[in-house]
Design brief:
The structure holds two protein chains of two kinds. Chain A is α/β, with parallel strands linked by helices. Helices cover 33% and strands 29% of the residues of chain A. In chain A, the strands form three sheets. In chain A, strands 1-11-10-4-9-8-7 form a seven-stranded mixed beta sheet, sandwiched between helices. A four-stranded antiparallel beta sheet of chain A has the order 3-2-5-6, with helices on one face. By secondary structure, chain B is mostly helical. Helix content of chain B is 80%, strand content 0%. Classes of the chains: A alpha/beta, B mainly alpha.
């Protein structure tokens, strides 16, 4: 597994004892689950800390759904341990799991609202299951509908709501029993980009206001980018990379992460990429990945001052992830002077940038 | 139509309504739990038990494959045990119920199976037990189909009750055969047919209206 070092220097290895291990809401140890010959989970170890948003990303079939379902016992691992608030649950019976599940809210890709119940009855259902009196249920439902901004829809039926409104009801319902953990199973995958943003903003607010720990699974890096604190990349049932979101975005270590990031990171324009040659050419194209200090300082103007000669910015930009600048720049360096190119690369590397020579183009744009 | 025949017609209507309503109610009371049992015990169900599922299925199929007129006669000992007599309207209700219950169980099973599995998963994720899932998810979500299926069962029962005349249960079918057909009372035959049409249309209309009110999926 590729471990990204966190700011405080400790790693996210859950098997290593940490002083604040009691703060872990979820701890998974060497989880395995097979369906026939394919391993859905292949030695997953993972920790979710109190108050954080952990995003798990992977392609469909990577094992995400199986993983999230192991956390509330909807799915049982073949081996390994699942600790929820310090209690091992993977071998509990259905009857013992039921009170535990009330500590864990869950939202779904297709919302899973009951069509025969009004919005408020949907939200109040977890409390009805807990056996709370009706007056209390309706009061709590009203509070939660207010929180998600749907008070006026209390008496409506789900069929009359838009996708985004349905997911808001789903969120309100998941929060009804005051859970310690919220599981989000592709909660925005059926929504359009604008609605996705508003739902993610709502989840972020809930995380901050209520201090609610959230574990979400998704196949969209944009979701991770918007709200996750930490990310774990899962592929073929294994965690291939894990760390703070900005650090994984700045320095993806695995191919799968790079490919998942592809859609939201700057790419060399296709027209230019098509003309790249491996050998020599009139111009050399460099890819420069920067993060932290390298991305916030006057990198390019310093480069121009320090290294005589010219270069051009072809494409790229600086983005902010978790208040950390992270960016990718594509530079074109003219001429066949190998020393000039080497000086530029040396300078950039000295500034903590990662530099890759992509190739050469015969004829600059 | 003579006043005596008219009185016969009224009595026959009452007998048909009584047989249909009573056996319909009984088939609902037993058929719906049977349908739930079929769904719950099937593979991946909330109380998976394949041998229970297969045994139930076999018994239901067995009853459904026997023609009603045979069932009517074959069940005479059972009828006598339950209502004390093997002839009359009440005696017909026993075989009618026994025929309609497995029929309705299959119809209820189909409606219950259409409930989105995601909803069952959501209820489980909330910490609901099997009873919660049945009460809060399966039955309410399938209710439009359960009601529509009950309408179909009632209409089928009106037809089946015509055969109940074979054990002296009376009813509209019996009246039509004995008076309309065997005694050439064309007016009785026409009257019976009109009444049956009105009964069937009325039940279907009421059922459809109820389904429309219950269905919140649209």
């Amino acid at each position: 597994m590729n471990q990204h070092i966190t700011a405080s220097g400790d790693t996210t290895d859950p098997t290593r004892a940490r002083p604040d291990a009691s703060q872990d809401v979820v701890r998974l140890v060497d989880l395995n689950r097979r369906f026939g010959v394919t391993a859905a989970l292949d030695g997953i170890s993972l920790t979710v800390r109190k108050g954080e948003i952990l995003g798990i990303i992977g392609r469909s079939g990577a094992g995400k759904s199986t993983l999230i379902r192991c956390l509330n016992g909807l799915e049982r691992p073949d081996s390994g341990e699942v600790f929820i608030e310090g209690r091992e649950i993977s071998r509990l019976g259905e009857r013992d799991l039921q009170p535990l599940r009330r500590r864990i809210g869950m939202i779904f890709q297709h919302f899973n609202l009951l069509s025969a119940k009004t919005v408020e009855d949907n939200v109040a259902l977890p409390l009805k299951i807990e056996g709370r009196p009706k007056a209390e249920r309706l009061k709590r439902a009203a509070e939660l509908l207010d929180l998600v901004g749907l008070s006026e829809k209390a008496k409506a039926y789900p069929a009359s709501l838009s996708g985004g409104q349905k997911q808001r009801v789903g969120i309100a319902r998941a929060l009804a029993a005051r859970p310690a953990l919220l599981l989000s199973d592709e909660a925005t995958s059926a929504l359009d980009p604008e609605t996705t943003r508003s739902i993610l903003a709502l989840l972020r607010d809930i995380n901050r206001q209520l201090g609610l720990t959230i574990l979400l699974i998704t196949h969209e890096m944009e979701v991770i980018r918007s709200i996750a604190d930490r990310v774990a990349v899962i592929d073929a049932g294994r965690i291939v990379e894990e760390g703070p979101v900005w650090s994984v975005f700045a320095d993806p270590r695995s191919d799968i992460t790079r490919s998942l990031l592809g859609a939201i990171r700057p790419q060399l324009p296709a027209e230019l990429a098509a003309r790249l040659l491996p050998g020599a050419g009139a111009e050399t194209i460099l890819r420069v990945d920067v993060a932290g200090e390298a991305a916030s300082g006057p990198l390019l103007s310093d480069l121009a001052t320090a290294v005589p000669g010219t270069f051009r910015l072809v494409h790229g930009g600086i983005d902010h992830i978790q208040q950390q600048p992270v960016g990718t720049l594509f530079l074109s360096v003219p001429g066949s002077d190998a020393n000039h190119l080497a000086d530029i690369i040396t300078f950039l590397k000295a500034r903590q940038a990662r530099v890759e020579v992509l190739g050469h183009v015969a004829d600059p744009v | 139509m003579s006043p005596i025949l008219f009185e016969l017609l009224l009595r026959s209507i009452w007998e048909t309504v009584l047989m249909t309503a009573a056996s319909g109610l009984i088939s609902l009371v037993f058929g719906l739990p049977l349908g739930l049992a079929l769904i719950a015990t099937e593979r991946g169900g909330i109380a998976e038990s394949l041998w229970v599922n297969r045994s139930l299925g076999a018994v239901i199929n067995g009853f459904r494959s026997v023609p009603f007129i045979i069932l009517l006669v074959a069940l005479i000992p059972v009828t006598r045990l339950i209502v004390g007599t093997s002839i009359g309207t009440w005696a017909a209700i026993v075989p009618l119920s026994i025929a309609a219950t497995p029929y309705y169980a299959r119809i209820a099973e189909v409606s219950l199976r259409e409930v989105d599995r995601g909803l069952i998963e959501a209820a489980r994720a909330m910490g609901g037990n099997r009873w919660t899932i049945i009460r809060e998810v399966l039955v309410p979500e399938a209710l439009p189909g359960i009601v529509a299926g009950f309408t179909v069962t009632l209409v089928t029962l009106i037809g089946a009750s015509a055969m109940a005349g074979a054990i002296g249960a009376g009813g509209l079918g019996d009246l039509a055969i004995r008076y309309g057909y065997q005694r050439f009372e064309t007016s009785i035959m026409i009257a019976v047919v009109i009444v049956l049409i009105i009964l069937v249309c009325g039940i279907q209309w009421a059922g459809d209206r109820l389904v429309a009110r219950l269905d919140r999926r649209g």
